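Re: beginner question about structure tokens

> Can someone show what the tokenized structure looks like for a real chain? I only ever see the sequence side.

Sure, here's an example I had lying around. Input first:
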Amino acid sequence: MRASSHPHKLVSLAVAAEAIDVHPRTIRRRIADGTIVGYRVGKLVKVDPADVEALVRPIAAARRGDAA
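And the corresponding structure tokens:
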């Protein structure tokens, strides 16, 4: 058995989605578009929670007087 070079515990798509309040399908889309890496564990797909948390970014606040 080979030692894991992966420093974080991998989590299911459902757990990852719940952590950032999105649907598991959103996590699958981010894997498909290459934004995050998915890992096959048997029949399951798992992700690194740190990769998922990196998806959450602040948005720029609208300046006063700007039309929405």
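Each token stands for a local structural state, so reading them left to right follows the chain. Strands lie at 11-12, 38-41, 44-47.
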